[in-house]
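STRUCTURE:
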């Protein structure tokens, strides 16, 4: 995996737009950072850090992680950023029972399969015909903590086909994300900006219960709406 840290320049109009609209930020990072390598980039995760950290660094702070190839930030406009650190290689040494500090900005939702009047599961139109779901935002802190606990259960990922999870919470603080994000819909590309997400920032300590599954979780991210700045789980050894 590869990790970068970008400080955006608020004097640049594109950077101001991207800081306000994470969906557009994702598009900029992908198109300018990976370009022709996008098919080999693996999962691209990013996160805007809290405003207090932006003030300390002189502009909005963006963390970016890719699981395939390293980004080439030379594709960004020179005045788009104040500073770029990285990319640097991230090869975590994970062991079962290890305690790690973590941060996660996530979109906790509960999914239920949509059914017709006869009880049959509804599927989307198109070649793949995915199962259609109702999504309910989890707004209470106890629901949000339970949601994160469930993400740590070892299971096979629907997205990657690999074993993910591999952790349990030891301590966590929960804070709502200021403002709203934009959520993709099923209708058109333009509708991807029409529905708000509920963002929740988790900070705390976790314990690794399955090292292989947890490494896959770090690469794949947690929860939905990753193209909108959610799902990037960062960890650090406890001091």
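SEQUENCE:
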């Amino acid at each position: 995996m590869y990790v970068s840290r970008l400080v955006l320049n608020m004097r640049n109009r594109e950077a101001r737009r991207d800081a306000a609209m994470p969906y557009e930020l994702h598009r900029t990072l992908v198109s300018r950072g990976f370009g022709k390598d996008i098919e080999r980039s693996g999962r691209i995760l990013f996160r805007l850090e809290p405003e207090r950290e932006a003030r300390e660094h002189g502009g909005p702070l963006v963390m970016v992680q890719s699981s395939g190839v390293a980004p080439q930030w030379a594709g960004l406009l020179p005045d788009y950023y104040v500073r770029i650190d990285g990319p640097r290689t991230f090869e975590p040494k994970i062991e079962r029972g290890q305690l790690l500090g973590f941060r996660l900005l996530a979109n906790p939702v509960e999914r239920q399969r949509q059914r017709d009047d006869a009880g049959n599961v509804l599927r989307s139109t198109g070649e793949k015909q995915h199962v259609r779901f109702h999504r309910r935002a989890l707004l209470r802190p106890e629901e949000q903590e339970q949601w994160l606990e469930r993400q740590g259960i070892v299971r096979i990922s629907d997205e990657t086909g690999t074993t993910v999870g591999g952790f349990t919470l030891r301590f966590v603080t929960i804070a709502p994300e200021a403002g709203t994000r934009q959520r993709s819909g099923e209708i058109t590309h333009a509708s991807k900006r029409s529905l708000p997400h509920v963002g929740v920032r988790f900070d705390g300590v976790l314990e690794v219960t399955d090292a292989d599954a947890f490494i896959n979780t770090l690469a794949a991210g947690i929860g939905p709406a990753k193209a909108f700045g959610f799902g990037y789980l960062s960890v650090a050894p406890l001091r």
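REMARK: Confidence is low (pLDDT under 50) at residues 179-194.
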